[in-house]
UniProtKB/TrEMBL annotation:
Protein name: Citrate synthase
Compartmental location: Mitochondrion
Classification lineage: Eukaryota, Fungi, Dikarya, Basidiomycota, Agaricomycotina
GO biological process terms, semicolon-separated: carbohydrate metabolic process; citrate metabolic process; tricarboxylic acid cycle
MF GO annotations: acyltransferase activity, acyl groups converted into alkyl on transfer
Major location (coarse): mitochondrion
Length: 437
């Protein structure tokens, strides 16, 4: 059985060659135009980044090295006794482009579990924070402080060759991923269950199995399985989204993987991005409270209009790239459809009913280019059902997940020797001058 590093040692030279050929044979090929609308419109649709692990099609949704979510559900190994994709098999696919065997997946789980405990100074740092500090702020602080351990940074200071960067980047990325569950679970414990003992990392469990255990839900098989699916499918969503792009930009300065992912986490903490999952549940609970027993399609429609007329966005709907219902939303809905207890849950039912009317309302409203649900429309209600009711924590789970994609790209950016990012900006006067020329 090969390790993920051994597989990467075989794949890296091939990708390096591919990039070399692109640069020598096609560097002047045109991929699109830059219009004023791109410069003033958040660069939507502008093809301007290299990102290896996944590509997002507006209609079909995400593909990880060409595999759709349904493909991944068919081919990626699950946990022993489970059915859902686990973080390790998704990580293996993202990093190497290959489907891991059962044995490779178990070996990676073990490798991560063996280094899963937090250093004591991180525990002390987290324990000293006020429990009222948002869990995402705490997560970013913990991840940034872990760079005390960075092998990449130490090697850089020692002086290493550029073609060795990726190996230290991989070490740091695996160390960070290994510790994220203990870090995220300690924040949960400190904020919501102060004083409760935290279990140690179990070397025989997968990453998310351990995470669920440390959150205090280890005996809830369905929630553990849901978290596995959730964390696998939130792992990567190509490179242009705010968290991935932020972490990519910061990494391009050769800041280490910890600092670069901490930066990405703070982009994820914005309500238009990852924080939407917290907002969706808050908004749906408010709707439930207002509508009481009278929840019909008509009353939901009215409630949607109330949100829109008050100038707010409908959280969980719309997307910068997608123009169809998000297949990640569909996968989470499918999880609900196979479990009677979820189907009977009032908040799960409300999310489903909202989906039955919201696209038409958003179309009539006429602003959003995508009236369909994104992943966040569904992700929180299942957590709530299983007793993980603290919505302010939800984006932390997203943060544990998105490390899979951001750290994968960090490794690839170093393996490919990508340069520091430095796009050109223009003032409005400079734009007008260019238009007149
Ligand atoms: N409700 C109401 N209006 C919306 C809307 C929504 N859900 N989505 C977009 N719009 C508006 C948008 O605010 C903009 O209005 P203005 O012209 O007045 O500025 C207009 O429609 C055109 O926007 P767009 O081009 O369709 O969307 P963007 O690409 O600019 O933005 C999102 C994409 C995701 C930020 C936006 O759809 C949104 O704010 N959605 C709600 C928040 C949300 O669910 N975010 C999570 C995204 C998710 F996938 C993730 O990151 N996890």
């Amino acid at each position: 059985t090969k390790t993920v590093r051994e597989v990467l040692e075989e794949v890296v030279p091939k990708k390096q060659l591919q990039l070399k050929q692109l640069k020598t044979e096609h560097s002047q090929a045109v991929l699109g135009e830059v219009k004023v609308e791109h410069v003033v419109g958040g660069m939507r649709g502008l093809k301007s980044m290299l990102w290896e692990a996944s590509v997002l099609d507006p209609l079909e949704g995400i593909r990880f090295h060409g595999l759709s979510i349904a493909d991944c559900q068919n081919v990626l190994p699950a946990a022993p006794g489970g059915k859902e994709i686990i973080a390790e098999s998704m990580l293996w696919l993202l990093l190497t482009g290959k489907i891991p065997t059962e044995a490779e997946t178990r070996q990676l789980s073990r490798q991560l579990a063996e280094k899963g405990e937090l250093p004591e100074y991180i525990e002390k740092l987290l324990d000293s924070l006020p429990p009222t500090l948002h869990p995402m702020t705490q997560l970013g602080m913990g991840v940034a402080a872990l760079n005390h351990e960075s092998k990449f940074q130490a090697a850089y200071e020692r002086g290493i060759k550029k073609n060795e960067y990726w190996q230290y980047a991989l070490e740091d990325s695996l160390d960070l991923l290994a510790r994220l569950p203990a870090l995220a679970a300690r924040i949960y414990r400190n904020v919501y269950n102060p004083g409760q003992p935290l279990p140690k990392v179990n070397k025989d469990l997968d990453l998310v199995g351990n995470y669920a255990n440390m959150l205090g839900f280890g005996d809830n098989h369905d929630l553990t399985e849901y978290l596995r699916l959730y964390i696998a499918i939130h792992g990567d969503h190509e490179g242009g989204n705010a968290s991935a792009h932020t972490s990519h930009l910061v990494g391009s300065t050769l800041a280490d993987p910890y600092l670069s992912y901490a930066a990405g986490l703070y982009a994820l903490a914005g309500p238009l991005h990852g924080l939407a999952n917290q907002e969706v549940l808050r908004w749906q609970m408010q709707m439930q409270k207002e509508l009481g027993d009278n929840i019909t399609h008509d009353s939901i429609r009215e409630s949607l209009w109330k949100t829109l007329k008050s100038g707010q966005v409908v959280p969980g709907y719309g997307h910068g790239v997608l123009r169809n219902p998000d297949p990640r939303f569909m996968a989470l809905q499918q999880f609900c459809d196979t479990r009677p207890s979820l189907l009977q849950d009032p908040i799960v039912q409300l999310v489903k009913k909202t989906y039955e009317v919201a696209p038409a309302v958003l179309k009539e409203h006429g602003k959003t280019k995508n009236p369909y649900p994104n992943v966040d429309a569904a992700s929180g209600c299942v957590l709530y059902h299983y007793g993980l009711t603290q919505f302010k924590y939800y984006t932390v789970i997203f943060g544990v997940s998105r490390a899979l994609g951001c750290l994968t790209q960090y490794v690839w950016s170093r393996a490919l020797g990508l340069p520091i990012e430095r796009p050109k900006s223009l003032s409005m006067d400079a734009i007008e001058k260019l238009i007149k020329e």
